[in-house]
Amino acid sequence: MKKATKKKHQKHKLKKQSPLLILLIPIVIITAYIILQNKEQVQEKPPKKQEPKVQLVPTQYLPIYKAAEKKYGVPWYVLAAHHRVETRFSTMDPMISPVGAEGPMQFMPCTFVGWSHPTCTGKGVGNIPEKEKEDPVVIHKYGGYGVDANGDGKADIWNLEDAVFSAANYLSQNGAAEGNLKEAIYSYNHSDDYVNEVLHYARLYKKDE
C-alpha cells in the first residue's frame, strides 16, 4: 500500500514538472541556435585586406638607370619610379597613351624630336616621319630630348635604354640634376597626382637600395 502511494506521488510530481520542461525546451533550442550562429559568423569573418605589394624594380634594368644617373645626375630611383608609373616597367601593352605618348617612358613625339619640328603643334603628336623621329641629327636640329644611349646610331623612343637616357636628359634639363625634383617631374607631366606618385615610388626604391 505504501509503494502504490509513493508511485502515485512521483507520478503527480512529474505531471507538475512537465509544463516547466516543455517551456524550457524552446529556450534551450533558441540559445543553442544563437551560439552556433555566432560561432559561424566568427569563423566566416573575412580576412583583413592586405596592402598591395610594391612592384619591385626589375634587376635587369638597374644598370640602365644607374648609367643614366651617372651621365645626367638624375637619381636612378627617380628614373625607376618614372618607368614604373608610366608603363609599369614596360609591361603595358600597347605602350601608346590615349593622347599619343609613346614607348617605355611615354614621350610625346614632339618632346622627343623637338617642338621646332614643322609638324609639331597642339598636344605634341606631330606627323614626324619614322626616320626623322629616331635620327640624332634631326633631334639635335629641332632641340628634342631624344638620346642614342646604346650607340647604334638611332635615338629610338621604343628602346628602353634610349628612352631612359632621354628621360634623364629631360629631367636633368628641367632641374632634377640640381635637386629640384618636384619641378622637373611636374614638367614631365603637368599633374600634382603624377608628381606625388612618382615621388612615392622613388622614396620606396631609394629605401630598398
UniProtKB/TrEMBL annotation:
PANTHER family: LYTIC MUREIN TRANSGLYCOSYLASE (PTHR30163:SF8), MEMBRANE-BOUND LYTIC MUREIN TRANSGLYCOSYLASE B (PTHR30163). The chain crosses the membrane at residues 20-36. GO terms for molecular function: peptidoglycan lytic transglycosylase activity. Gene3D superfamilies: 1.10.530.10. This is Lytic transglycosylase domain-containing protein. SUPFAM superfamilies: Lysozyme-like. InterPro entries: Lysozyme-like_dom_sf, MltB-like, SLT_2. The keyword tRNA-binding does not apply. Keywords: Membrane, Transmembrane, Transmembrane helix. One of its GO terms (biological process) is peptidoglycan catabolic process. Residues 142-179 form the Transglycosylase SLT domain.
